[in-house]
Amino acid sequence: MTAPDYITSPVFADASELDAVTLEIILSGLRSVADETYIALMKSAFSTNIKERNDHSTALIDPKGRMISLCERSQPIHLSSMLGLTGALLRKYPLDAFRPGDVFISNDPYVADGSHLPDVNFSMPVFVDGKLLCFMCNIAHHADIGGMAPGSMSGGMTEIYQEGLRIPPVRLLTDYRVNEDIFDLVLLNARVPEERRGDYNAQIAACRLGERRIHELAERHGISALEQAFEQILARTYTRMTDAISQIPPGRYVFEDVMDDDGFGAMNIPIRLAVTVGDPAHEGRIQCDFEGSNPMVRGNINVPFRALQSSVVYAMRALLDPNIPSNQGMLDAIEIEAPEGSMLRAAFPAAVAGRANTCQRVIDVVLGALAPALPDKAVGAANGANTMVVFSGRDPETGKDYVYLETVGGGFGGRAAKDGKDGVQVHLINTSNLPVEAIETEYPLLVESYEFVENSGGAGMYRGGLGLRRTIRPVGHTAVFTGQGERFLNAPWGVFGGAEGGKGGFFLDSDAGRQPMDTKPGLTGVSPEQAVTVETAGAGGYGAPEQRDALAIEGDRTSGKYTADYLRAHYPQVKEA
Amino acid sequence: MSWTLGIDVGGTFTDLCAHNPDEGRTCYHKRPSTPHNPSQAILAGIMELCEKFGLDPMAFDRIAHGTTVATNALIENKGGRVSLIVTKGFRDLLEIGRQVRPEIYDLQKDFPMPLVPRERRFEVTERITRGGRIVTPLGAEEIARVVTEVAASKPDAVAVCLLFSHLDPSHEQALGAALKAAMPGVPVSLSSEVRPEFREYERLSTTVLNACLQPVLDAYLESLETGVRDLAGETPLGINQSSGGLITAARAREFPIRTALSGPAAGVAGAVHELKAAGEPAAISLDIGGTSSDVALIWEYQTRTVNERWVEGYPVRMPSVDIDAIGAGGGSIAWVDSDGLLKVGPQSAGAFPGPACYDRGGDLPTVSDANVILGRLSSRGLLAGDMPMRRDLAEAVVTDLAEKIGLSHIWTALGIIDIAVVNMVRGIRAISVEKGYDPRNLTLIAYGGAGPLHASAVARALSIPRVVVPPHPGILCAQGLIVADQLEHFVRPLHCALDASLPDRLMPAWAVLSAEADGWFTSQEVRTEGRVIRARLDMRYAGQNFEIPVAFDPEAPFDLGALRDAFSEAHRQTYGFDNKTAEIEVTSVQLAASGRHNAAARFGMLEAGEGGVPDPFERRDVWFDRSGAVDTPVYDRTGFQAGQEIAGPAIIEQLDTTTVLFPGDHARVTEDASLIIEIDQ
């Protein structure tokens, strides 16, 4: 590996270099394009998933396939798959094959470098004075993309074909006109096609707004200044990132954690990482090598390489420089290796819909590896999962079929100077919950509780955050429940002596009592006399419990977040009452 | 009619504006605020104003007040001790919120902890679900139990928010009655009264904030009302609410959360009034202060209303004038990021220590420092001259910065301004996409101390052709209070399809709303000719989660097609497309009632002069771009006559602001004393 060419052989001579003011103004314009397309997509989409949960992202990528500007509100896991589609296009077509008015669509992890099928990528080449300047890209998580189960996210599948429609990179628009043949094909293969149509239209509109904005920018600054700015932004960000990396003491840092299971019998599946810093051959870049991680599994928790890259990049940015722009300069400073065909670099035809669980664990592993090197920034292991709850059935009042899907947050790890946050989405995931009043209005379900799980944040000088508990009961019908849980068997670890947090679990409640369910329950009938309770994992603590402040322990007691028994058992300074 | 008094209390200054339409007189006064007890500055200000202009305090007919007391209480965490009652199983809802983090990449940053700690959040066994159906009734014993527990927690105020109370408030009402009986004098906020709206967390958060502010506003308004009564007799005191209308002090004490964004709303009302005088119905208002800029869209002389806001990290569901804040102002600090690029803001030097040129110990370069270096701001300071600007101090801090990026201090100062303008422009563009308008078709109205200083550059970058600078840009909020309508919204949920059956649901709901509005007009002593009622339906395509308001005429015969078309049009305006075949849902009906006062007020009448060009009182070198300093005439605005014209480059100074005309700009003085600047594109 060598330094990227914008470092080793700058395209533009010093004489034409843009100054720190002009560059900032152009950069602001580029950010503006990404931001405005993001807002346009959010405001015009049809589905809750985009409008309310903002499960979408936008970016500007150059004709060399390099990320130039990513909307800051983007979902971190979407970062690399936008690069993936554009990269696949650049491999598939020569540059002169692109035309103004082309809009490409794809979602496939294997032929289009996507990350899972519900994430549908759009990419539109933008021309200025007949020259290809960049691609306007966006990605949106669609609530359904076909396949065996509603929502296209369920477990129980072992190959990509079962998970939904695979879309290779194809033109959805030619000369600004929708190719209706392809649109019909794509729409027919998803549930709720009208919602899909609305969301796809929103994605197209976002591309076109981006094109207009780029034209305006080019008019103001000129194409040559923009191209120079691309190079310089990447070079400056690369240097900023390698500077940040140089704060880590040189060395090799290893860490290991396990996934609970894949739903098909593989248990305690290891993720292994060695991070190397300061190897002179790598000129300031950081290496993350996942050698020794488990091979692909049958269940859907395999991770395509682009999703692995998004996860590692998230962890590095959060640890080293939360305000650094996520452009190619930053990506190029992080080298990632994972064995082909391993769970972290899935190969065709592995199932990948549930990759977010594994991605969350990858982040815990990166943070765990670098904890000894960066004690002020380290955090205890978080909930580290993307715990999913799905209810489906027929609404007895309306006679309509429904699918309710939600992911439930958990504990955030204890930190160097404060407790971990209770009951929150962690790391890659930051999507809102659905209001209880929305759930009950739209679905024949009763949410009986939504609260913290007591004692689930690991003790420590700064304790881990608490997990969440949600109990849901079908109303007037028997619903079908499926779920995916992680950290239900292996607890989130603490750091520097902090205790581990509580594990999660699914439970079936009835008059007969509470029955534990599998970590990844398949289709399970639930009658109105029964309820499903999900508890998510808490998080690990930071530092030895002996060092916890007496007032903080008192707060743990008076808030009722911890029982007296727990406090006595974990804090030696708590005297017997 | 005699005098109306507007009082705007900001963090630094308390502004007063008194207006008498019969005499055509308007008087202004500005004095330092007294943040520890804001009513002190108000009462002193009233006396000073009366003395200065020879007015009798007993002659005020109405007093209109915009206040930041509520916001400041939240910022300083000085709200009351609140206890909360929620549905069983949801004690943690207030703390969980929407289960998200404020900044995804920041491992250290959290939303603020809830204003009610867990030990004062009490669960009550009861349950209502969809359609307002009661699953578990609320029993008398359960009420007695929870009220006893709440009373034992010794709260200053109590909030109650139960699930689905927006559809059936009976459980909340029963608890409210029991709480008031058990704890006389302790204010109770019921979510079904504060904001009876779908989405429990936002309703809960709003209700808790309201409860938290009740003791604070109670104390403040009590002391203010007493003081005003002593000074000005029994003059009605109207409090400006965030949605831009005046409510009675009694109502503000009941619903203090409605005043959380009181001040900026008054500024926009003032801007709308000036736009009417200038004949500009469609505009962007830009209020540039020290730390931030407030931006709002005005369309056909109307502002939009937004229903959700974040106040100090807490969501508030409450109508407010749709104003967006951008983190760029005169005090914004310039710095060099770790990748070597020049950045401006969002950190601000604020009023203290302020920009380096203020000579109050500020040692970081700010936008104001750059303006002084470039000659756009006079080193004399504003015209009154009581606060000179130290150009040498500004040059010293900007030169330090210039060395880091390898540019001259002049180019760096130009860069600071350009980047601050670009930040404002980026904010305005994002907002314009979100709201669905094109800035090129609008006029810019600039106010706040630094608005007219940057308006020309902002307008140019947005391809806006025209800028309006009102006569007193620094006191526009107080002036806006004079013309503020008394306003109230009434809402009923509907949740039904837009089809022929709608009138069966709509008409009874509308009758209830109309009766409520009539009662309100009477209680507010609004005369019949000043009563205005507007009706709207909140609609969305089935499956969407955001509603679009569509106006309708409740007197006209029901016209399904027209409503569909109006919604399609609004959807196209907002989102760029519509879907003729999709099912449309009506989620609620709203009635906006307003009582008009001083609608025809004219604040800045000028003698018609002979036109021509006013005489500059000095000339100085001003930098507009990198090509060099331009010898620029400087005018005193107080001497302007209607019909005069000024060609840029020019600097126009007055007591409360400085207006910059770029080369090629062309300003005209109107008979209402506004400047209308045609921007050279």
From TrEMBL, chain A:
Superkingdom classification of source: Bacteria
Signal peptide (residue range): none
GO biological process: glutathione metabolic process
One cellular-component annotation, GO: cytosol
Molecular-function annotations in GO: 5-oxoprolinase (ATP-hydrolyzing) activity
Ranges of residues in domain Hydantoinase B/oxoprolinase: 19-545
PANTHER family documented for this protein: 5-OXOPROLINASE RELATED, HYPOTHETICAL 5-OXOPROLINASE (EUROFUNG)-RELATED
Protein's UniProt name: N-methylhydantoinase B
Automatic annotation (TrEMBL), chain B:
Residue stretches making up the Acetophenone carboxylase-like C-terminal domain: 505-669
GO molecular function, one term: 5-oxoprolinase (ATP-hydrolyzing) activity
Gene3D superfamilies: 3.30.420.40
InterPro entries per UniProt: ACX-like_C, ATPase_NBD, Hydant_A_N, Hydantoinase_A, Oxoprolinase-like
Annotated GO biological process: glutathione metabolic process
SUPFAM superfamilies named in the record: Actin-like ATPase domain
GO CC list: cytosol
Domain called Hydantoinase A/oxoprolinase: residue spans: 203-488
Domain Hydantoinase/oxoprolinase N-terminal residues, every copy: 5-180
Protein name: N-methylhydantoinase A
Species in which this protein is naturally found: Celeribacter persicus
